[in-house]
């Protein structure tokens, strides 16, 4: 398929983070997370995204046909997103693997990176299908020092049951499937949802 046929949908999460949904699969081997241009070396897609002038990209996460870009720059996503789209198209048109498989070097992968991949797989296969039944979604933001950071969206944002869902459902799953996780932190702004919970509860 030629690059112009590739459809890319940008879904900004906030000013610092945006998901790009690509009509072509980019990386089939689980989740790859790049936290610097050094880590991206050898993978044309994240290399090109880190090199976008003025974006000050701090992280690129690639999984299946999803590319999540984290930036420090205040530049708006409609501006940065165009450059990200061009980088994705160029990487797919380049004829080589856009994201190379993670090199397996014993003792170099950090524990958080390994946990991130396992938690991301769990969210994809179990957590989000469960939450989707209630019209919500839970997004894995990061894993730092074995603590999982999530943001709730859709029907979960601003929902009074969000904390119960988080504590009982998701935390229970994490303990069962990824017992190394020490805790879970919800960084959602629950007052900003389409149905923020601080409004009078409708009976």
Overview of the molecule:
The chain has 203 residues and is of the alpha+beta class. It has two domains: 3-93, Scaffold protein Nfu/NifU, N-terminal domain (Ribosomal Protein S8, Chain: A, domain 1); 111-186, GMP Synthetase, Chain A, domain 3 (2-Layer Sandwich), CATH 3.30.300.130. It is built from five helices and eight strands. The chain has helices spanning 37-40, 44-50, 77-93, 111-132, 162-177; strands at 8-14, 17-22, 27-34, 57-64, 66-71, 136-144, 147-154, 183-186. The protein has a five-stranded antiparallel sheet. The protein has a three-stranded mixed sheet with strand order 6-7-8, with helices on one face. It is globular, with a radius of gyration of 18 Å. Mean pLDDT is 80; it is low at 194-203.
Spans of at least 5 consecutive residues whose pLDDT stays below 50 are 194-203
Oligomer designation: single chain
Bin the helical content.
25-40%
CATH third-level topology of the largest domain: Ribosomal Protein S8, Chain: A, domain 1
Q: What string, H for helix and E for strand, traces the elements in order?
A: EEEHHEEHHEEHE
What is the architecture of the largest domain at the second tier of CATH?
Answer: 2-Layer Sandwich
Q: State the CATH superfamily name of the largest domain.
A: Scaffold protein Nfu/NifU, N-terminal domain
| Overall number of domains | 2
Order of adjacent strands in the largest pleated sheet: 1-2-5-4-3
Question: Which value, in Å, is the CA radius of gyration?
Answer: 18 Å
């Amino acid at each position: 398929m030629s690059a112009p046929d590739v459809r890319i949908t940008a879904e900004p999460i906030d000013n610092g983070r945006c998901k790009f949904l690509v009509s072509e699969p980019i990386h089939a081997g689980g989740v790859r997370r790049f936290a610097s241009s050094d880590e991206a070396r050898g993978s044309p897609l994240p290399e090109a995204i880190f090199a976008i002038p003025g974006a000050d990209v701090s992280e690129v996460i690639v999984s299946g046909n999803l590319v999540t870009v984290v930036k420090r720059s205040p530049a708006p996503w409609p501006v940065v997103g165009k450059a990200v789209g061009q980088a994705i198209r160029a990487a797919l048109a380049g004829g080589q693997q856009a994201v190379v498989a993670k090199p397996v070097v014993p003792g170099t992968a950090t524990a958080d990176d390994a946990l991130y991949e396992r938690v991301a797989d769990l969210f994809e296969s179990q957590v989000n299908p469960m939450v989707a039944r209630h019209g919500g979604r839970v997004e894995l933001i990061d894993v730092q020092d074995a603590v999982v950071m999530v943001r709730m969206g859709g029907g979960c944002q601003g929902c009074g049951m969000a904390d119960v869902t988080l504590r009982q459902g998701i935390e229970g799953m994490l303990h069962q499937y990824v017992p190394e996780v020490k805790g879970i932190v919800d960084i959602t702004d629950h007052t900003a949802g389409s149905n923020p919970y601080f409004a009078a509860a409708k009976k």
